[in-house]
Each structure stands twice: as structure tokens, then as C-alpha cells.
Amino acid sequence: MKNKIAFVLTLIIILSCKVAPAKTQTQQIPVFMYHMLTTDSHKTNNLTISQSAFRSQMNYLKTNGYTTITMDQFYDSMSKKIILPAKSVLITFDDGYISNYKLAYPILKANKQKATLFMISHEVGRTSDSMNAKQLLEMDINGFRVESHTDWHENLGSLPYAKQLNAIRAAKTSLEKLLGRKVMYLAYPCGSYNTNTIKAAHAAGCNLGLTTNEGFTSRLDNPYRINRIYMGPSDNLKTLKHKLDYGKQLMWHINTYLL
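== Polysaccharide deacetylase family protein ==
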């Protein structure tokens, strides 16, 4: 009898050791990448999505049990192995267009959804198309957190290391002064980066680097090569569901392989 109990306990331990890593190591997080919004669906370019389409997408996520997470939560899942809710998504915007404040922010706020804006620090308040300091501060304290998109939207991958480091540090310093808190995350402008970019981002104190490489991200990935999923004018609920389902299928295949 004792031998049977010992065998069962040993089997449970072996199985738990085998199953747990698959669940913790392979959680696939979709990071959606937006830029501009418009109220006129006939006036779009490859970086613009209509407000109505964006509203439909956010409403779909809300009504279907998806949790919009913060960059801090995403980082914790990467660095501390914290398990996020099963249906977690990260919503990001690049550049800092005024439409993010006027058209996207009200939808996110009404839905109590989180998002992250990667702001070009030198564009703050420069033109009528970019957000000013007051608008950024309002968004930042209401769930639409502001992080860095460099100082002048520099094409980092084409610059020597020293200039990359300066561009990242300058933006980080400027935004931290504006927001009154640490800025810890960076999105590479135009998705341009190389090994020196990663070194510079780390040296400047950035914890994560987001690319424009298509795909989902898990904690197995390089924290300075975070994949994102482009969202543009042709995206609707059908394409959103397809992109979300891709991650589920990918996770199932990886889990099956590891198990």
C-alpha cells in the first residue's frame, strides 16, 4: 500500500513539473499597434483607422472577456513569470497624434480599457496634429499611459550607437520631467533597430523594446524584440477575430509540443 501511495505521489510530482512550464512559458500575448484615427472612413491611409472600426474592435474585446493590460503588467509577465488573465491583450499607439486623444481616448475611458501611447517627445505641443502636455497628462492618469518613441522619431537602426543612446535618453528624460514618473518602455520608430539599439535601450534604462515585427509575444521572447500586430484601415471585426485566433492556435501547437 505504501509503495502504491509513493508511486502515485511521484507520478503527480512528475506530471506537475512537466505541465506547469508549458502553461507558464507559452502564454501568447497579442500586442496591437495603432497610429491615427479618423471620423471619415473614406479618408484613411495605411496608418489610419476609422473611429467606428476602432470602437467596434474595443467593444468586441470588452464583451468577449478580453483584459486590456498595462505595460507594467506585460513587463511583469515577461520578467517575473507572472501569469496574466487568459485573454489578455496590449493596446498600443505610436507617435502621439491628436486623434488618439480626441477619438481613441474617449472610447477607452468609457470602456475602462487600458492602452499605451508611445510619444515622440519633441512633438509634444509642436503642431495642431500632435498632443500637448495637458492632454498627455490627462490620458496618462486615466489608463492611457505614455511611454517613449524617441526624441525626433529617429531611425535608430541607421544610427551609430552613441546617437541612438542620445535619442533614447533625451526622450526618456523629457517625458519623465513632463509626467513626473519613470518612463521605462520604448517603441522603435518605423520598427528600425539592431543590436546596438538593444544595447542602447538597456543602457538608457528601458525595460522593453517594441518592434513592428508581426506576431504574438511570450516570456520566451527577447524583451527588446517584442512583436506587435499591425492594425490598419482594412481591419474590421473579422480580421480582429482572425488575428486573435492565430494566437490561440499558436499556443495550442506549442503546448502540444512541450507536453
